[in-house]
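Lab notebook, bench 4. Still working through the backlog of constructs that have no structural model yet. Next entry is a single chain of 249 residues. Request: give me the structure tokens for it.
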Amino acid sequence: MKKPIVILGPMESESALLIQSLGQRQARAVGSFTFHEGMIGGYPVVVCRTYIGVVNSAAAAALAIQRYAPLCVIIQGTSGAHDPALHQGDLVLGDHLVHLGRFFTPHRDRGEGTDAFAWEPQGSEIVAVNAGGFTEVLHSDRRIIDIAARTPYPRGRVKRGTIGAADIWNRELDMIAHLHRTLGTDCEEMEGFGVAQVCAGFGVPMADIRIISNSEWHEQEEFNEKYGADCQMFVLEVVKRLIAEQTLM
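Model written out:
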């Protein structure tokens, strides 16, 4: 039996088109998640709406891996730009993935206030990656990202870069600039690192692909969920290429 490709999308606007693209579709509920099983290009594919957040996406990924033993997992959807050169509709292919919610704060006495710029980034304890310490950066599978990088995308720029994730929506330009400068982040979202951490623990290839849906650098570029559809259609083409070229198989 062929190992399916699992695709995750947090919101309905980041998963509905992929679900509709499945042939021979059937739905299976597991807890609060629904896994939509079907076929794309004659190959089994499973799509799941994870709902927003690192914990939700990590839980969905773990359930999918346990249930389907997939060929790979792709997390995709919208994101906010950290790189000022990126605009709505541009894509970021996550060569590198970092957690934006793990920091060590230096001691300050009562009344001394806070200084987020002094917080020190902390890695995650991922035994399968680094049994002797903490891991600060995870990576999408290069084979998947290579395929994505040569998949045509006429709606904007495609950049291979660094995606940050945490349960936070940054709208302070000084903080966005700080994260971009110190961690190299090109955009931020709320799921990718959690999926990457679970996949690393199970030894399953994964990739994070994101579209810019909003940017604080550009006043007119407020969040617009319509860009989730463009990302899904791009990921659909990437999956078709993975299947046709038998990448990972």
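Notes after review: The helical segments are 16-20, 54-68, 142-149, 173-183, 192-202, 227-244. The chain has one domain: 5-244. Flag for follow-up if needed.
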